[in-house]
TrEMBL record:
CDD domains referenced in this protein's UniProt entry, alphabetically: OAT_like
Stored SUPFAM superfamilies: PLP-dependent transferases
Protein name in the entry: Aspartate aminotransferase family protein
Gene Ontology MF terms in the entry: transaminase activity
Family classification: Belongs to the class-III pyridoxal-phosphate-dependent aminotransferase family.
Keyword Cell inner membrane: no
Keywords: Aminotransferase, Pyridoxal phosphate, Transferase
Obligatory cofactor(s): pyridoxal 5'-phosphate
InterPro entries the UniProt entry points to: Aminotrans_3 (IPR005814), Aminotrans_3_PPA_site (IPR049704), PyrdxlP-dep_Trfase (IPR015424), PyrdxlP-dep_Trfase_major (IPR015421), PyrdxlP-dep_Trfase_small (IPR015422)
Source species, domain of life: Bacteria
């Protein structure tokens, strides 16, 4: 007979933390207890200004009553219902709300639970699309160096961040990568989109020449690469990539997990950048991170090709137990209503010039070798310490937290992405604290 053992005392041992130096953290914990508005609070009650919207996701700020009440109401009404051969109204409403925000023609929505699941789902949809068109030879997936598309095998395969791949050996076959777009010799300290680098998209022609267009299913890129350290697309780059994909019959997938839902001052980054892909992945800001949820939006052409390609029965053998989860759907509906009612993209556009000036004010701080920005995103690149890459930025992260400000670091780059409700005093405090930390870690 199984017995329930006595509860263990609350400690740090059981939780294997993601993307974390577990040994260091558990010897030197930094804990968050509650959140409200622009800030977190530690268990001791100390405020920590959120300069990262959690993990690029709490775009409407923390503790929004409208989202909390929507989740509570739905949980009392129905906690869970499957969406395999059944449905529930709130999932359809959530999909319709997403479709209202996506670019024209990108309005068929498949729900997932995270950005990682969205990436793998988009890649599978791309493969299914070509198979439905009787082009089964199109199996090759193209990503980009320094790209991040979550941690599923598909996303890691097309992703291009070395540490995310090196522990796991061979990933999926039939993949290739475009070069990244970071050209510091030409574009350092660019304001907004850098001028140089559109020609880097032409590397797709070399991949086509090597493998044949008839073998390539999709190209997946982030409009703005975030997790690798804020790489902003050069002027004309995405337009050129769109042109080449269209010419060769390749689907273009935009990973908008970060750039979706107002981060660039528009509903989706594709709108700000003037390029419409065939498929968009999203997550994070979809529910303001109150409940995990992701989605993939496709063109009607992609949807119809797959659905009409099957005479009857299930058209796409793919899905998740929690696709369109009632609580997540309720959170999404409430979140998207907040975006509309408070015009969060408009707020981001209004403060963007002030934000841009603040980011570039760090140019002359010790060891700063580049500053870059786009929308409400900022990246500050630091010269690494000799023989100790990443330690300077990590020490700055810890120093900022102890001074009451949360930033994010990747390698020796500090990445900033505050909630879209940020105001000028928040920007001043965030950048001022970061400036002091950079100076303090000059050695």
């Amino acid at each position: 007979m199984n017995e329930i053992s006595a509860p263990r005392p609350n400690n740090l041992d059981a939780f294997w933390m993601p993307f974390t130096d577990n040994k260091y953290f558990k010897a030197n914990p930094r804990l968050l207890y509650r959140a409200e508005g622009m800030s977190y609070f530690t268990p001791e009650g100390r405020e920590v200004l959120d300069g990262t919207a959690g993990l690029w996701c709490c775009n409407a700020g923390h503790g929004r009553r409208e989202i909390t009440e929507a989740i509570q109401k739905q949980a009392a009404l129905m906690d869970f219902a499957p969406t395999f051969n059944l449905g529930h109204p709130i999932a359809f409403e959530a999909a319709a709300r997403v479709a209202e925000m996506t670019p024209d023609g990108i309005d068929r929505v498949f729900f997932t639970n995270s950005g990682s699941e969205s990436a793998d789902t988009a890649l599978k949809i791309a493969l299914a699309y070509h198979k439905a068109r009787r082009e089964s030879s199109r199996v090759r997936l193209v990503g980009r160096e320094r790209g991040y598309h979550g941690v599923g095998f598909g996303g890691i395969t097309v992703g291009g961040i070395g540490p995310n791949r090196k522990q796991f050996g061979a990933l999926l076959p039939y993949a290739d990568h475009l070069p990244h777009t970071h050209l510091p010799a030409k574009n350092a300290f660019s304001r907004g989109q850098p001028e140089h680098g559109a020609e880097l998209a032409d590397a797709l022609e070399a991949i086509v020449a090597l493998h044949g267009a008839e073998t390539i299913a999709a190209v997946m890129v982030e409009p703005v690469a975030g997790s690798t350290g804020v790489l902003v697309p050069p002027l004309g780059y995405l337009q050129r990539l769109r042109e080449l994909c269209t010419r060769h019959g390749i689907l273009l997938i935009f990973d908008e997990v970060i750039t979706g839902f107002g981060r660039l001052g528009t509903n989706f980054g594709s709108e700000r950048l003037g390029v419409t892909p065939d498929i968009i992945t999203m997550a994070k800001g979809l529910t303001n991170a109150a409940v995990p949820m992701g989605a993939v939006a496709t063109s009607q052409t992609v949807y119809d090709t797959i659905v009409d390609g099957v005479a009857g029965g299930i058209e796409l053998f793919h899905g998740y137990t929690y696709s369109g989860h009632p609580l997540a759907s309720a959170a999404a509906v409430a979140t998207l209503e907040l975006h509309r009612a408070e015009d969060l993209p408009g707020r981001a556009r209004a403060i963007e010039p002030y934000w841009q000036d603040a980011i570039h004010s760090l140019k002359d701080r010790p060891n700063v070798i580049d500053t870059r920005d786009f929308g409400l995103i900022g990246g500050i690149e630091l010269a690494p310490r000799p023989g100790k890459p990443g330690t300077r930025a990590m020490d700055i992260f810890r120093r900022c937290f102890d001074a009451g400000v949360l930033v994010r670091v990747t390698g020796d780059i500090v990445a900033l992405s505050p909630p879209l409700i940020v105001e000028r005093p928040h920007v001043d405090r965030l950048i001022g604290t970061l400036a002091d930390a950079i100076t303090a870690e000059a050695a």
